[in-house]
């Protein structure tokens, strides 16, 4: 029996550095092309979630991180205009690190005034929830 | 562009009553037919996760619960013999309530010695993680 069709599973990563800057990418593709967003993407079949989170972070920003802490799960049906996706979001911290854009990211930057930015999807909510954990 | 194929999304619910009993079902179908398991199941497209958790709990045990608290996310590729599934598990508490089996459950019971039981999937791990939150 094949597995039923369910919402598509994604993961996003909130990375703070020691200054309180957040690592954001500029999206290279639609939806939200050009917008700031958290690094992240779709989980592959056969891939544990934390692995997918680290892989997407590495692909999009070049960064490796240590321990991941679960922030929350975001599953509102209208959160992604492409269809129903569910994101599992993780928090990581680094002292400070060079980053460089790759894969689906047009840019990867440490952003100081992230509270003032307009973010793609429900990423402002994810960032707000991450901040509460700190 | 269609969404990519990802692991299938499921949800499970740990419900403790005031005595410390846990609400378990006996699985009516394979895999793990006849085994104790947490109430839960696949998330429908268009359905937020907490809604799916409440729906499955109601369908399988007849129970309505109040606030749900996130326990964790379980995504090891071999956790379900049918294929790669990812479960988001929630914790709820009730004083005490009558339950009755429905849908995919052959039985629904409040179980006192749940630590001594062999549970389907990785549900023993989920229960252990839930206990740490109490």
Quick overview of this protein structure:
The structure is a homodimer of 134-residue chains. Chain A has 134 residues and is an alpha+beta fold. The first copy, chain A, has helices at residues 49-61, 123-133, and strands spanning 8-16, 22-27, 36-37, 40-42, 69-74, 85-93, 105-111.
Question: Can you put this structure into words, describing what you see?
Answer:
2 copies of one chain form a homodimer. With 134 residues, chain A is an alpha+beta fold. Helix content of chain A is 18%, strand content 31%. Chain A is built from 2 helices and 7 strands. In chain A, the strands form 2 sheets. In chain A, strands 4-1-6-5 form a 4-stranded mixed sheet, sandwiched between helices. A 3-stranded antiparallel sheet of chain A has the order 3-2-7, with no helix packed on it. The mean pLDDT of chain A is 94. Chains A and B meet through strand 1, strand 5 and strand 6 of A and strand 1, strand 5 and strand 6 of B.
Considering the chains and any ligands shown, give keywords for the structure.
7 strands, homodimer, alpha+beta, 18% helix, 3-stranded antiparallel β-sheet, 134 residues, globular
Provide the residue-averaged pLDDT of chain A.
94
Q: Helix- and strand-based class of chain A?
A: alpha+beta
Task: Give the spatial strand order of the biggest sheet of chain A.
Answer: 4-1-6-5
Q: Specify the oligomeric state.
A: homodimer
Proportion of beta-strand residues of chain A? 25-35%
Helix content of chain A: 10-25%
- What overall geometry of chain A do the principal axes of the alpha carbons give? globular
- List the uncertain runs of chain A: none
User: CA-to-CA gap between the ends of chain A?
Assistant: 44 Å
Q: Given the structure, what is the number of helices of chain A? A: 2
Name the largest protein-protein interface in this structure. A-B, 31 and 31 residues
According to DSSP, the number of beta strands of chain A is 7
Q: What summary fits the major beta sheet of chain A? A: 4 strands, mixed
Radius of gyration of chain A: 14 Å
What is the H-and-E element order of chain A? EEEEHEEEH
